[in-house]
Records
---
Amino acid sequence: MSGYVLEASGVSVRFGGVRALTGVGLGIRAGEVCGLIGPNGAGKTTLFDVLSGIRRPDRGRMLLDGADITRRSPVWRARHGMRRTFQRQQLFGQLSVADNVLVAQEWRGGGGGLAADLLALPARRARERARRTRGERVLADCGIGALGATYAGGLPVGQARMVELARAAADPPRVLLLDEPASGMSAPERERLAAVVRRLAEEGCAVLLVEHNVAFVMDLCTRVVVLDLGTVLAEGTPAGVRADPLVREAYLGAT
Ligand SMILES: Nc1ncnc2c1ncn2[C@@H]1O[C@H](COP(=O)(O)OP(=O)(O)OP(=O)(O)O)[C@@H](O)[C@H]1O
């Protein structure tokens, strides 16, 4: 056993003549926060698309708990505890913040089927209350507990990113893929983000985080993987990666 919750091996993706990923391997363990960094166009988002099932790789395979999920849909992966946020925000702008978070829990169903919904049976209402309570707790953890009734569409970037994090955390994730979660956040928001991510990891979640803010990554992550031109350039502790001459040349030296 590799000890990885999520593992990708030999992943290759081409867009016409562009090799976005070539033979990439990566694994994340329960309870770790792993950073994925690299220059623009290195293939980070493409790898996230492959891991979350949005894009089928030309080559390679993925394992969740050792079982092959390469051909599994994004929905199947989400239902088995894999969550993802996007570089470009994907909130339901017409819904309140509270409802954005509630939506993430709805896939489990209300219990009792359509009749329970139509008749608003007590068990159905109790389940809805429990979900709203969990949503409120997650929003409070994310520092946006006061925003539950606010429409998500009008939020400033930092708060909108927090709502995305809350939505991803509302139904406890086993694997969390965060694509540039700190972008547009203020320093206090970044601190809050780091605290929430650490807590999720302590609860056993495996976190993979793409982020251009290198200082943030080095501070938060226990391990860092560096992608460059679609391949893994380096991997190790934040200190080890920071000191790697190849990484300095390809990426850190330029930031
Ligand atoms: N849909 C697409 N069609 C064609 N080329 C693409 C497509 N998506 C990505 N690419 C190319 O694949 C390569 C990897 O892109 P990707 O977005 O994964 O990199 P990235 O590391 O996430 O970059 P950034 O840090 O700028 O977000 C780039 O050369 C990009 O131009």
---
Amino acid sequence: MSVYTPVTDADASALLEHYTLGELELLEGIAQGIENSNFFLTTTTGRYVLTLFESVPREDLPFYMGLMDHLATHDILCPAPMKRDDGAFVGELNGKAAAIVTRLEGEPHMHPDADDCRATGRILAAMHVASIEYDAGLANAKGQEWREHFAQVAAPRLSRAENDLIASENRYQAMHDDSVLPQSIIHGDLFRDNVLWGEQGGGVIDFYFACDDVLLYDLAITANDWCVTREAALDPARAKALIAGYETLRPLTELERELWPVMLRRAALRTWLGRIGYNHFPRDSHMTIPKDHEFSRRLLVHHIEHARELQESAA
Ligand SMILES: Nc1ncnc2c1ncn2[C@@H]1O[C@H](COP(=O)(O)OP(=O)(O)OP(=O)(O)O)[C@@H](O)[C@H]1O
Ligand SMILES: N[C@@H](CCO)C(=O)O
């Protein structure tokens, strides 16, 4: 996160009265992340994370909570949402929807090697396979329609070259027919900071971009953060390892291999636009760590200029 909405010890204690999680011992704001307000919450029964939802539509919360609950009970290491005494996963605190989930152990690997990427690919595939039986759905709020709409909103803040690049990439993406690719529930944001490595392996957090979409797109979002160099180029060795790990559980189809460069470009565009949003239209936060939008622009340009290398990474 960030902490947009402060929470006092007294607020947290009052919230805990609606759960069977014991008494408050410690409450700490978390600076990482950018979408929600997050706090580490230690009680007499264990370690949890309290999230106040700042921009996630309230009606979508049952989908996210249900998904985490489903995955946590299907062998995926991820936060388990805690039920309130009234049976709901979501309550309210300081005017915001609020939920408590279990806190995972471990730290992100911010300088991953090929082994980390292989393990991450396998974790992503395991989530894709486990999600098949989750019987809820949610359209992608950051899909083509959003990309085109946001391009108009952001246009006055951007240079002509940036606007031309976004418009041209949006046209290119609109030409591709997604319906030919396997679709199901995607995590949508499996960046390095969303996998915490502990004794039990990699645990996944931050499901608030999850939705129904193309599975290969999820792999591309992951590759664009795990398998790139500081110079904003794809590292073929790490990309191959990510895909190899993924394919231990779900082999890619020929069509997916063919459309890999398209999805890498789409993922780079989504992240670039999202970061333009965070930078040019910031919300008022007490703690936030900024995201590098220029890096995402350079990554998109790299992908446009190196189609053949991208294709080879999925061969
Ligand atoms: N269940 C959890 N267990 C351990 N740490 C967590 C957990 N949930 C969140 N965190 C910590 O809080 C930080 C912020 O969480 P998260 O990434 O979900 O924030 P956000 O604002 O929702 O997301 P985003 O990354 O989309 O900006 C994480 O980087 C991690 O350090
Ligand atoms: N993972 C995204 C932020 C999502 O909130 C980024 O790094 O731009």
